[in-house]
Amino acid sequence: MSAARPDDQRLVRRAALVIAAQTAAAVAIVVIAVAALVLFLTVREQRVDGERIVRAAAQTAQDATSPPPGVALLIRQPDGTVATSAGVPEGLRSLDLAALPAGLSEATPPVDARTDSDYRPHYQLFVADHDGRRVVAALDSRYRAYETRRLITSLSIAGLLGVAAAAGVGWLIGTQAVRPLGSALALQRRFVADASHELRTPLTILHTRAQMLARRTDLDPRTREDLRRLVDDSRMLSDIIDDLLLSAELQHRPGDRERVDITALARSVAESFAPTAGQAGVDLTIEAPPDPVLVAGIPVALRRALNALVDNALNHTHTGGSVTLRVRTADGRVNLAVVDDGDGLDPAATAALTERFARGPQTHAGRGRRFGLGLALVREIVHAHGGTFTLDGRPSAGATATITMPPAP
After folding, report:
1. Which of 137, 163, 179 delimits the end of a domain?
2. 383 is a domain residue
3. Domain-located, residue 190
4. Which ranges carry the Histidine kinase domain (predicted)?
5. Residues 325-356, buried b or exposed e (16+ Cβ, 10 A)?
6. How far is CA 130 from the centre of its chain?
7. What is the DSSP code string of 248-261?
8. What is the pLDDT of residue 31?
9. Fewest C-beta atoms under 10 Å: which of 124, 232, 240, 307?
10. Same domain for 294 and 151?
11. What residues contact residue 161 under an 8 Å CB cut-off, 6+ apart?
């Protein structure tokens, strides 16, 4: 089986990462929801339990000598004297018991301003009046606040560990789940390469026979025109087969690179398209520095990419227009641009135009972009060389196709 291409490997890894991220996100949502529910119920239960304790203590207290554990009792007698249980903090002693409302309430006695807020006492109170006596039961809620903070810390640690474990499990499951995708992509590309090789020979024979028939002198005009179209169609199909083979070959020979002079390549392509440009009445020029501009790449692939860009520009340029090949170096990169003043393009359609077998709007001659890999293959070639490919333009204002690549080391 063919080895997976780097693009396919990135696709598989990205799919596995998405599965892992989605799993972790789902678990995180569940953990947060459960933790919030547990925390809410715990705090609520603590509060209700505290209220129950102080209510019972205040309503059943006969004197201040035997309070329940953790509860402080203060009893104000009818004559104004106050009896307290043992160990009542000074802050509670300073409360004005007569001013407290009956029933449940809360109080934070004044303390030294330098005292940390976590250590400032806060009390749940219940005030009950019996036969002229006022009984106040107070429960310090600081200790329950400590328990709540410990619970939050424990839930946070457990939640983070759970999310991390879920992400790891999601990554393992995702890798196993998308592994067949990588194999399927490799098989698909192998099939394309094999089929293209098998089709090349019979297609070449078909094209040659069509050319020979078109050269006969005893043909009527209609038959001659049909044969001319057959020759053009077979040539177009041959170009598609060549594009498919080149696309498959780019990843089969990732290290087969040599130093390529982009300036010389641009001049050679311009010379090869000069007759076509002359017949169309289009001025084809080149702007390049006199010295070689070198990149590391596959000459055949780079020529194929530049051929596609120039062919596309000529097909979309009116008679009297111009197409310019520009070679520049800037910011440590090599820029090769094909600029035309033809039909232009819709900026919103640039992404679609680089898809395989895309067909753009009709040209001034009534033709659309030719069927084939076209700009998609250009993008693939450029990416295989570590570069970028961009399209820019406006409708009826020309277009610029730019290849940016790193220079040869």
Report:
1. 179
2. yes
3. no
4. 194-409
5. bbbbeeeeebbbbbbbbbbbbeeeebeebbee
6. 70
7. HHHHH-TT--EEEE
8. 87
9. 232
10. no
11. none
CA distance 323 to 283: 6
Percent helix, strand, coil in the chain (nearest 5)? 55, 20, 25
Task: Give the least confident one: 7-21, 113-127, 224-238.
Answer: 113-127
Conformation bin of residue 233: beta by default, left when phi > 0, alpha when psi is -120 to 50: alpha
Query: Tokens at residue 198, please?
Result: 């098998």
Domain presence at residue 91 = yes
Which residue range(s) make up the domain with 310? 256-405
Asked whether residue 172 falls in the same domain as residue 290, the answer is: no
CATH code at 342? 3.30.565.10
The DSSP H or E segment spanning 225 is helix 221-252
> Does the pLDDT of residue 204 top 90, yes or no?
no
pLDDT band (50, 70, 90) for residue 250: low
Mean pLDDT of the region 11-28: 83
pLDDT band at residue 222, thresholds of 50, 70 and 90?
Answer: confident
Quick one: CA torsion of 347, 351, 357, 359, rounded to 10 degrees?
Answer: -20
- For residue 218, tell me if it sits in a domain: no
> CA-CA distance, 293 to 381, in Å (whole number)?
18
Q: How many domains does the chain have?
A: 2
Strand partners, 382: none
